[in-house]
Amino acid sequence: MRNIPVDVSALTFVCVSAPRPKLVSQETGEVKTDRDGNTVFTVGLSAADAMGRVELVNLSVPGDQDVTIGQIVSPVDLVAFPWEQVINGQKRWGIAYRASRVAVAGPVGVPDVPGSAAADVA
């Protein structure tokens, strides 16, 4: 399997779903582990570029990550890898993403909009 390093320097990532254990099987509830026996977690991120294009990325990471929804984060050692499988005669394929960890970069700034509760408090 080929791992493709991803340059994250031109992207902004925001956590959009909290870390949750990745399952090997929905039917059995078996939790996925890595080679070292660590539970693999999935973290949902939005990735935005300077042009305003946004993609949703489900990222696999070893161990629970201390991130919450709304935090600006940075995936460390992010790699992409193609996958394919056949399920019930249907061929499926895609690109999966994995990182060694997710680092918190800072809080999300919420702009003051006239008439909003945030603007009224200020």
Automatic annotation (TrEMBL):
Domain of life: Bacteria
Protein name as it appears in the record: Regulatory protein
Organism annotation: Actinomadura graeca
Taxonomic lineage from the root: Bacteria, Bacillati, Actinomycetota, Actinomycetes, Streptosporangiales
